[in-house]
Write a structure and sequence with these properties.
Blueprint: E1 4-9, H1 16-29, E2 36-41, H2 47-54, E3 60-63, H3 80-85, E4 90-93, H4 96-100, H5 106-118, E5 122-127, H6 131-135, H7 139-151, H8 156-159, E6 163-166, H9 180-198, H10 200-205, E7 208-211, H11 219-223, E8 230-233, H12 240-247
Parallel strand pairs: 1-2, 1-8, 2-3, 3-4, 4-5, 5-6, 6-7, 7-8
Bound molecules: 1,3-dihydroxyacetonephosphate.
Residues 9, 95, 167, 172-173, 211-214, 232-236 line the site of 1,3-dihydroxyacetonephosphate.
Protein backbone atom coordinates (compact mmCIF):
# COMPACT_ATOMS: atom_id res chain seq x y z
CA UNK A 1 0.00 0.00 0.00
CA UNK A 2 1.05 3.56 -0.67
CA UNK A 3 1.78 5.97 2.14
CA UNK A 4 -0.97 8.55 2.58
CA UNK A 5 0.37 12.00 3.44
CA UNK A 6 -1.64 14.87 4.87
CA UNK A 7 0.45 18.04 4.75
CA UNK A 8 -0.08 21.58 5.98
CA UNK A 9 1.35 24.36 3.84
CA UNK A 10 1.08 27.42 6.04
CA UNK A 11 2.46 29.74 3.32
CA UNK A 12 3.40 33.13 4.90
CA UNK A 13 1.19 32.65 7.97
CA UNK A 14 1.63 31.94 11.69
CA UNK A 15 4.24 33.64 13.83
CA UNK A 16 6.04 32.05 16.79
CA UNK A 17 3.19 32.28 19.30
CA UNK A 18 0.68 30.89 16.81
CA UNK A 19 2.99 28.01 16.01
CA UNK A 20 3.29 27.15 19.71
CA UNK A 21 -0.47 27.24 20.15
CA UNK A 22 -1.09 25.18 17.01
CA UNK A 23 1.20 22.37 18.10
CA UNK A 24 -0.17 22.40 21.64
CA UNK A 25 -3.67 21.87 20.26
CA UNK A 26 -2.61 19.47 17.52
CA UNK A 27 -0.63 17.21 19.83
CA UNK A 28 -3.47 17.14 22.35
CA UNK A 29 -5.75 15.57 19.74
CA UNK A 30 -3.32 13.70 17.48
CA UNK A 31 -3.19 9.93 17.26
CA UNK A 32 -0.85 8.30 14.77
CA UNK A 33 -2.67 6.35 12.07
CA UNK A 34 -1.21 3.35 10.31
CA UNK A 35 -0.26 4.30 6.76
CA UNK A 36 -0.87 8.03 7.23
CA UNK A 37 2.02 10.47 7.60
CA UNK A 38 1.57 14.05 8.71
CA UNK A 39 3.75 16.94 7.61
CA UNK A 40 3.65 20.61 8.60
CA UNK A 41 5.42 23.33 6.59
CA UNK A 42 5.89 26.53 8.61
CA UNK A 43 7.95 29.49 7.41
CA UNK A 44 11.74 29.13 7.47
CA UNK A 45 12.49 31.00 10.74
CA UNK A 46 10.46 28.48 12.73
CA UNK A 47 11.58 25.22 11.13
CA UNK A 48 13.90 24.18 13.97
CA UNK A 49 11.33 24.97 16.65
CA UNK A 50 8.65 23.11 14.72
CA UNK A 51 10.92 20.05 14.51
CA UNK A 52 11.41 20.20 18.30
CA UNK A 53 7.67 20.32 18.91
CA UNK A 54 6.53 17.85 16.26
CA UNK A 55 9.19 15.11 16.23
CA UNK A 56 8.26 13.37 19.50
CA UNK A 57 4.78 12.75 18.04
CA UNK A 58 6.17 11.45 14.73
CA UNK A 59 4.99 14.50 12.77
CA UNK A 60 7.44 15.61 10.07
CA UNK A 61 8.41 19.15 9.13
CA UNK A 62 8.85 20.58 5.63
CA UNK A 63 10.36 23.80 4.33
CA UNK A 64 8.26 25.69 1.77
CA UNK A 65 11.12 26.39 -0.63
CA UNK A 66 14.92 26.33 -0.99
CA UNK A 67 17.56 27.29 -3.54
CA UNK A 68 19.31 24.78 -5.78
CA UNK A 69 22.84 26.07 -5.17
CA UNK A 70 24.81 24.69 -2.23
CA UNK A 71 26.11 28.08 -1.01
CA UNK A 72 27.33 31.42 -2.30
CA UNK A 73 26.24 34.96 -3.11
CA UNK A 74 22.46 34.42 -3.16
CA UNK A 75 21.11 36.96 -0.71
CA UNK A 76 17.91 35.86 0.93
CA UNK A 77 18.09 32.24 -0.17
CA UNK A 78 18.40 29.02 1.84
CA UNK A 79 20.19 25.89 0.64
CA UNK A 80 19.04 22.28 0.97
CA UNK A 81 21.77 21.49 3.52
CA UNK A 82 20.64 24.47 5.61
CA UNK A 83 17.07 23.19 5.56
CA UNK A 84 18.36 19.77 6.54
CA UNK A 85 20.29 21.28 9.49
CA UNK A 86 17.00 22.48 10.99
CA UNK A 87 15.82 18.88 11.23
CA UNK A 88 13.22 19.28 8.48
CA UNK A 89 13.11 16.26 6.19
CA UNK A 90 10.80 17.49 3.43
CA UNK A 91 10.66 20.53 1.19
CA UNK A 92 7.79 21.81 -0.94
CA UNK A 93 9.12 22.62 -4.43
CA UNK A 94 7.46 24.11 -7.48
CA UNK A 95 4.40 25.37 -5.64
CA UNK A 96 2.18 27.39 -7.96
CA UNK A 97 2.90 30.55 -5.96
CA UNK A 98 6.62 30.00 -6.53
CA UNK A 99 5.97 29.42 -10.23
CA UNK A 100 3.48 32.20 -10.87
CA UNK A 101 4.24 34.88 -8.24
CA UNK A 102 8.03 34.41 -8.07
CA UNK A 103 8.70 33.30 -11.63
CA UNK A 104 10.23 29.88 -11.07
CA UNK A 105 10.39 27.77 -14.20
CA UNK A 106 10.55 24.03 -14.81
CA UNK A 107 14.33 24.04 -15.11
CA UNK A 108 14.83 25.76 -11.76
CA UNK A 109 12.37 23.41 -10.13
CA UNK A 110 14.16 20.37 -11.59
CA UNK A 111 17.47 21.64 -10.16
CA UNK A 112 15.81 22.18 -6.78
CA UNK A 113 14.37 18.66 -6.71
CA UNK A 114 17.81 17.24 -7.51
CA UNK A 115 19.54 19.37 -4.85
CA UNK A 116 16.94 18.36 -2.24
CA UNK A 117 17.43 14.66 -2.97
CA UNK A 118 21.23 15.02 -2.86
CA UNK A 119 20.80 16.43 0.64
CA UNK A 120 18.39 13.71 1.77
CA UNK A 121 15.36 15.96 1.79
CA UNK A 122 12.18 14.52 0.30
CA UNK A 123 10.67 16.94 -2.22
CA UNK A 124 6.93 17.54 -2.32
CA UNK A 125 6.97 18.38 -5.99
CA UNK A 126 3.96 20.47 -7.06
CA UNK A 127 2.38 20.61 -10.49
CA UNK A 128 -0.89 22.02 -11.79
CA UNK A 129 -2.59 23.99 -14.53
CA UNK A 130 -3.98 27.53 -14.57
CA UNK A 131 -7.69 28.11 -15.16
CA UNK A 132 -7.13 29.33 -18.73
CA UNK A 133 -5.03 26.27 -19.47
CA UNK A 134 -7.81 23.97 -18.20
CA UNK A 135 -10.40 25.88 -20.20
CA UNK A 136 -8.26 25.61 -23.32
CA UNK A 137 -8.08 21.83 -22.86
CA UNK A 138 -4.37 21.97 -22.01
CA UNK A 139 -4.38 20.35 -18.58
CA UNK A 140 -2.81 17.13 -19.81
CA UNK A 141 -0.03 18.82 -21.77
CA UNK A 142 0.79 21.29 -18.97
CA UNK A 143 1.00 18.60 -16.32
CA UNK A 144 2.99 16.32 -18.63
CA UNK A 145 5.53 19.06 -19.38
CA UNK A 146 5.92 19.97 -15.70
CA UNK A 147 6.43 16.32 -14.75
CA UNK A 148 8.81 15.47 -17.57
CA UNK A 149 11.06 18.43 -16.73
CA UNK A 150 11.79 16.83 -13.38
CA UNK A 151 11.35 13.11 -14.04
CA UNK A 152 13.87 13.05 -16.87
CA UNK A 153 16.57 14.16 -14.39
CA UNK A 154 15.92 11.39 -11.85
CA UNK A 155 16.59 7.67 -11.54
CA UNK A 156 14.06 5.25 -10.03
CA UNK A 157 15.68 5.26 -6.61
CA UNK A 158 15.52 9.04 -6.45
CA UNK A 159 11.93 9.01 -7.67
CA UNK A 160 10.90 6.81 -4.77
CA UNK A 161 11.78 9.68 -2.41
CA UNK A 162 9.60 12.18 -4.28
CA UNK A 163 6.04 13.04 -3.28
CA UNK A 164 4.00 14.56 -6.10
CA UNK A 165 1.29 17.12 -5.36
CA UNK A 166 -1.30 17.95 -8.00
CA UNK A 167 -2.64 21.42 -7.30
CA UNK A 168 -4.87 22.89 -10.00
CA UNK A 169 -4.10 26.60 -9.66
CA UNK A 170 -7.75 27.60 -10.08
CA UNK A 171 -8.62 25.60 -6.95
CA UNK A 172 -5.97 27.15 -4.67
CA UNK A 173 -7.38 29.52 -2.08
CA UNK A 174 -10.51 30.04 -4.15
CA UNK A 175 -12.88 27.72 -2.32
CA UNK A 176 -13.35 25.91 -5.67
CA UNK A 177 -12.25 22.32 -5.24
CA UNK A 178 -11.67 20.01 -8.15
CA UNK A 179 -14.33 17.31 -7.97
CA UNK A 180 -12.95 13.94 -6.94
CA UNK A 181 -13.54 12.81 -10.54
CA UNK A 182 -11.61 15.78 -12.00
CA UNK A 183 -8.75 15.23 -9.57
CA UNK A 184 -8.71 11.46 -10.05
CA UNK A 185 -8.49 11.90 -13.82
CA UNK A 186 -5.30 13.94 -13.50
CA UNK A 187 -3.87 11.74 -10.75
CA UNK A 188 -4.30 8.71 -12.99
CA UNK A 189 -2.52 10.57 -15.78
CA UNK A 190 0.32 11.52 -13.40
CA UNK A 191 0.78 7.93 -12.26
CA UNK A 192 0.78 6.84 -15.89
CA UNK A 193 3.56 9.30 -16.71
CA UNK A 194 5.59 8.07 -13.72
CA UNK A 195 4.99 4.50 -14.96
CA UNK A 196 6.27 5.49 -18.39
CA UNK A 197 9.56 6.70 -16.89
CA UNK A 198 10.17 4.19 -14.11
CA UNK A 199 7.83 1.22 -14.54
CA UNK A 200 4.74 0.06 -12.71
CA UNK A 201 6.33 -0.94 -9.42
CA UNK A 202 7.72 2.54 -8.82
CA UNK A 203 4.52 4.20 -10.06
CA UNK A 204 2.40 2.22 -7.62
CA UNK A 205 4.54 3.34 -4.69
CA UNK A 206 4.52 7.08 -5.31
CA UNK A 207 2.25 9.21 -3.12
CA UNK A 208 0.27 11.69 -5.18
CA UNK A 209 -1.37 14.39 -3.08
CA UNK A 210 -4.21 16.63 -4.14
CA UNK A 211 -4.17 20.31 -3.16
CA UNK A 212 -6.63 23.14 -3.71
CA UNK A 213 -9.33 24.08 -1.18
CA UNK A 214 -9.21 20.78 0.68
CA UNK A 215 -11.47 21.17 3.72
CA UNK A 216 -13.06 19.03 6.41
CA UNK A 217 -16.22 18.74 4.32
CA UNK A 218 -14.58 17.45 1.13
CA UNK A 219 -11.53 15.52 2.36
CA UNK A 220 -13.33 12.17 2.74
CA UNK A 221 -14.64 12.19 -0.79
CA UNK A 222 -11.29 13.22 -2.28
CA UNK A 223 -9.35 10.63 -0.27
CA UNK A 224 -11.74 7.91 -1.45
CA UNK A 225 -10.47 8.24 -5.02
CA UNK A 226 -8.12 5.44 -6.02
CA UNK A 227 -5.14 7.55 -7.04
CA UNK A 228 -5.44 10.34 -4.45
CA UNK A 229 -3.01 9.47 -1.67
CA UNK A 230 -3.04 12.58 0.43
CA UNK A 231 -3.70 16.28 0.64
CA UNK A 232 -1.56 19.41 0.58
CA UNK A 233 -3.60 21.98 2.44
CA UNK A 234 -3.34 25.74 2.81
CA UNK A 235 -6.21 27.58 4.50
CA UNK A 236 -7.79 24.63 6.28
CA UNK A 237 -4.44 23.62 7.82
CA UNK A 238 -3.98 26.79 9.85
CA UNK A 239 -6.25 25.78 12.70
CA UNK A 240 -5.32 22.62 14.61
CA UNK A 241 -8.94 21.50 14.94
CA UNK A 242 -9.56 21.62 11.21
CA UNK A 243 -6.18 20.03 10.38
CA UNK A 244 -6.92 17.20 12.82
CA UNK A 245 -10.17 16.53 11.02
CA UNK A 246 -8.23 16.30 7.73
CA UNK A 247 -5.72 13.88 9.27
CA UNK A 248 -8.63 11.74 10.44
CA UNK A 249 -10.14 11.53 6.95
CA UNK A 250 -12.42 8.62 6.28
CA UNK A 251 -11.84 7.08 2.87
CA UNK A 252 -14.68 4.62 3.36
P1 LIG B 1 -5.71 26.11 -0.12
O1 LIG B 1 -5.93 24.83 0.65
O2 LIG B 1 -5.78 27.33 0.77
O3 LIG B 1 -6.57 26.19 -1.33
O4 LIG B 1 -4.19 26.08 -0.63
C1 LIG B 1 -3.75 24.96 -1.32
C2 LIG B 1 -2.28 25.03 -1.46
O5 LIG B 1 -1.75 25.85 -2.18
C3 LIG B 1 -1.47 24.10 -0.66
O6 LIG B 1 -0.14 24.10 -1.08
Amino acid sequence: MRENIIAANWKMNHRASELEQFFQQLLAGYKEREGVSVIVAPTAPYLARAVELASPAGIKIAAQNMHFEASGAFTGEISASMVRDTGARYVILGHSERRHVFGENDEMIARKVKAALENKLQPIFCIGELLEQREAGKTESVVTTQLNAVLTTLNAEEMLDVVVAYEPVWAIGTGKTATPAQAEEVHRLVRGIIRGHFGDEVAQRITIQYGGSVKPDNVDELMSAENIDGALVGGASLKAESFLRLINFNAG
